[in-house]
Amino acid sequence: MRSADGLSTRQEKILNYIQEFFAKHGYWPAIRDIQTDLKISSTSVVAYNLKALQDKGKINRQGKVSRGITLPNTLGVHNVAHQVPLLGIITAGQPLPDPEEVDVEAADKVDVPLDLASAEKLKDVYALKVRGLSMIDALIDDGDIVLLRRQDSANNGDMVAALLLDENAVTLKKFYQENGRVRLQPANSTMQPIFTMAENVRIQGRVVGVLRSLF
Amino acid sequence: MRSADGLSTRQEKILNYIQEFFAKHGYWPAIRDIQTDLKISSTSVVAYNLKALQDKGKINRQGKVSRGITLPNTLGVHNVAHQVPLLGIITAGQPLPDPEEVDVEAADKVDVPLDLASAEKLKDVYALKVRGLSMIDALIDDGDIVLLRRQDSANNGDMVAALLLDENAVTLKKFYQENGRVRLQPANSTMQPIFTMAENVRIQGRVVGVLRSLF
DNA sequence: ATACCAACCAAACACTTGTGCTGTCAAGTA
DNA sequence: TACTTGACAGCACAAGTGTTTGGTTGGTAT
């Protein structure tokens, strides 16, 4: 019996098993792991099908190397995501936590896919979970995770986390400095901008990404 | 000589080597790999330092298992990204592309961090890039990447991609079926819902995530 | 001095694991 | 029938690899 891929059912099981094994253990299975768990009679049968999988390009193998089976799209897997610390929760009316004062090592980590940004750029980035709907004009929902890079200045057009001193509130807006005053423009074009004095604004960081999971 | 982490220079070199080895080969190094490449005199020295690293929680080891050294950060599903195909662009007024009709293998891939969803759940998920501001009431901006799971029905409260037949337009809304008609509720509470007949609505998929990069 | 200990060294040992036969068996196929 | 081929079985071997044992070295406290 063959699937659309030209793999026998046994080969598909093996392929699937390899993937699950790695996900579970973090290292690749030995031939005998496959044999035992898939209840295959002999190691040579596994070797036989492994060779078939290799010929079909479904797996990579390094001859003689123990547990040297790898899946093509899993290789170098930790290069596709970078971890940034999840430092806390952002709500309106609360300044952002200072990354310096938090135990970055102990903090939860968030995986950031490297399509969003190179590892280099993620150096000084940390994550915050959004509570409430106060950021909705920045197109950020309750429960979203915001990626911020710590910086205290901004260029025009940057989306920044800005602390408004008079209201003691943090907000995420696009930043524009225009003849002495500051315009904070919501990302949502149906909302109105805030105008205020530059002295009233403290930039706390630049928004560099948003992750939303609806699972 | 010790670093801030309490690791000797040799331990740091080993740790670094393990990471590089995995990035390069896709499987973990054997003790003798470490010994040879780091020009360490004996396997027992490597074993000695490996045990130290393990005690300090810097590596995980599976006794007796060949190449069973793993790094906590890289181990297992939770810290790994999963790739889903980027099938195209979503704009208002255009039905979604049918994943069946697109060469999924050839499509660009988007890395999805597994905090957003387990690999299992990402099985039937694909990604679309958003063009235009038509999804702004779903808190989705121009340039965002939307993750969709293909399905043609939905539960109340699900955020779905709905095709409105009379307008021939796709929109992302929360789905509610209420006494014969359908309410499509924007995620943005300042916007108004759409009411329409069930026959006028085709569910094209469920929104399971959003990625936004502002770099 | 002596004792102690972390770190290192060398070699042997024993388990783990990939490979290489030699067959079997059913399904084509000339 | 006789021959081939794909897929499976069983088993033994050798190479790959983690572990152990006994010893050395240099520093530090007693």
How would a crystallographer describe the biggest sheet of chain A?
Answer: 9 strands, mixed
Helix content of chain A: 10-25%
Percentage of β-strand residues of chain A: 25-35%
Number of helices of chain A: 3
Q: Which pair of chains forms the biggest interface, and how many residues does each contribute?
A: A-B, 55 and 57 residues
Radius of gyration of chain A: 25 Å
Assembly type of the shown chains?
homodimer
The CATH superfamily of the largest domain in chain A is identified as Umud Fragment, subunit A
Trace the largest sheet of chain A across and list its strands.
Answer: 2-1-3-4-9-5-6-7-8
CATH topology (fold) name of the largest domain in chain A? Umud Fragment, subunit A
Give the structural class of chain A: alpha+beta
CATH class of the largest domain in chain A: Mainly Beta
Mean pLDDT of chain A: 82
Tally of structural domains of chain A: 2
Task: Write down how many β-strands of chain A occur, each being a DSSP E stretch of 2 or more residues.
Answer: 9
Shape, principal axes of CA atoms of chain A:
elongated
